[in-house]
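=== RUN LOG ===
request id: a7f3
mode: sequence -> structure
chains: 1
length: 119
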Amino acid sequence: MIAENLVIGVVGPCGAGKTTLVRGLKEHGYHLRHIAQEHSYVPYMWKRISNPDILIFLQVSYPVSMQRRKMNWTEAEFQEQQRRLAHALEHADFILDTDQLMIEEVLERVLSFLGKKVR
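=== RESULT ===
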């Protein structure tokens, strides 16, 4: 697969680092779609929105999401996002738990994955 023709989708719960990863990957020349699947009741909306060639799922725990973003939401609301993301998680090409990672490490790991996947 050639990188310039590749569409990469990024999904995950709020606070997982999607926006930051999209910004970083764009700086490396990748064509990205930040998919706000966590806000949709349609399980396969990620596919309808962008139908990406590669789907990256960033995971985060509720406590870490609360540290990263000062959101006024409950753990039940976080779990609802997880439920809404289940279909995307099942179909993800790469899943990364970002809880213990710095921004640079998330980008580095995704770039490493893409380097092996994309020629």
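=== NOTES ===
The longest helix spans residues 75-91.
The mean pLDDT is 86.
=== END ===
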